[in-house]
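Appendix B: complex inputs.
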Amino acid sequence: MNGTPLIRLANVSKVYHLESGDFTALDHISLDISEGEFVALMGPSGSGKSTMMNQLGILDVPTTGKISIAGKNIASMTNLERTHMRRDVIGYVFQKFYLIPLLSAYENVEYPLILKYKKRDTSGRAAAVLKSVGFDEAMSAHRPNQLSGGQQQRVAIARALVNDPKILLCDEPTGNLDRKTGFQIMDILVGLHKEGKTVILVTHDPKIAEYAHRTIQLEDGRVVES
Amino acid sequence: MRDIFFDLSIRSVRLNFLRSLLASIGIVIGVVAISSMGMLGTNMQLMVKDQLTTGINTIAITPDVVRAEPGASVSTNTGITDIQLRDIRDAAGVNEVIPIDRTNTQFSIGSNDGRGSIYGLDPADIKNIMNVTEGSTIRGESDAIVGATIANRFNLLIGTRIKIGEPNISMTRPVVRVVGILPAAGLSSSNGINSDNAIIVSDTWYTNQYGGGNVYDQVNVNLKDVSTLSAVEDAIDKKVNRNKEVVRISDSSSRITSVSSTLSSLTTFILAIGSISLLVAATSIFNVMMMSVSERVQEIGILLSIGTEKGEIRRMFLYEAFILGIIGAIIGGIMSIIIGYSVVSAMIGNTAYFFLPESIVYIPAGMIVGMIVCIISGLYPAWKASNMDPIDALRSE
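Resulting structure:
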């Protein structure tokens, strides 16, 4: 790591220009997240959690300030470079799973590999990752709408993992699951953290946030507790 | 290896099967319209050209100046003289040279009066160039062959007698006897003899009646080989029009060119009408593609956020347009053969030219145009999809 954190936000602001005036979603945030951390991002709705996730997920760029992820300045990258960063460095787990409806469970996991290597997976990696998150192999030909929420989230985690990203961004990963399934999913994330992944978790459930080793509290676009 | 984006497109088409099929039907109609219209026009062109070229091997030489003699009731052609005829024969070489006398006159059959052309030809030439289908060729001096139009109008039979000239109380008019009837020539009578409305008599009979034994109204040169046309024309021109333009040399190739160009602009015109249906098809493909994009906004958001390149998203939607196009083009191609054939046989009544390359080429051409139109219609939707903001796209429901 040579001292440089995996993620560094320096004085980051995000301002949305609306008809009703400017809205500051993130207000001069400076923050470091080191490799191997398990961070929970908390805060009431409207506090800037989603905006923060979009910044960390390289889906957006800050209005002012500087974000570097894995040593690269996001703002100075081209669109294509950012796309490749999303593909290779970050794994996304969403509240609503966001699987590709036209692809089977297996193909959803295989998809990022195809994006990266421009060919179908013959190494068996997709199947292995799917198995590692406890997904029943017999269901791998099923389309997402034929799977339960817990199964869909396992597929989504497998998809996030398949390109071996450094960072796992989880946006309310248990939000659409029952309590028991939610804890199963959290156990998977804990296991992944133990394997060395940097896990960033957005939640407003304190019980879920307890899994993390560090909690960042956001309010009105500012960090109030870190 | 199958491209996953192609798979995604196929699945999307399959998922919205009815909608995709309806959009493809637009392309089917467009392809059928273009192909059958094109084939219709081409078949018409080929047929007319074929009919015209039956007379293309004839060069017609006519006197350049027509002079009306003062005081004379009828204008007289200066005519082609014997000397000029000899020059023509020299220049024409191996080709057949046929001097023709011609005038317009009134005639009577029984109590019916008519008007038409009288041609005087050497009976030997008549035998060579006239294809008498009913009766025989001219043998005796007052024998005549008549064209199809005259024969039909006056119900002429072999043996009917025709009085030639204006009715005149003080004189008995000369009479010819019909020995042969010519088939309808129509457009193909391009050899300078409009035989449909003609009475053809021997040159001897003609000069006895009208004089001008060594002057001719027209000289035809029948070519043995059509490709020598301009060479022979040049030779005649050099020889006869030595000092000044005394004869006019013409052939039907210019007429064929002008008829063909008229027909080809007609073909272009009906093709343009056919293209309108492709325009409609393009709109429906565009519409379906836009629907596909707006229905899959969230999916596009997912694809973009997990690292799909813009180009890959574009490719996915262009594949979809391509699939719609190829379905439409294949069905359209098959239907074009059936519908095109029916249209051609119904409207032209002759399908002999249908499978010629010039005609059948409209089927692949129509298919290709249909597919191109499809892909062009998919360009904007694909571009729109690939340029979405992943955050906005993900958020949409």
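Chain B touches chain A at residues 1-2, 4, 8, 11-12, 15, 298-299, 301-310, 312, 390-391, 394 (CB under 8 Å).
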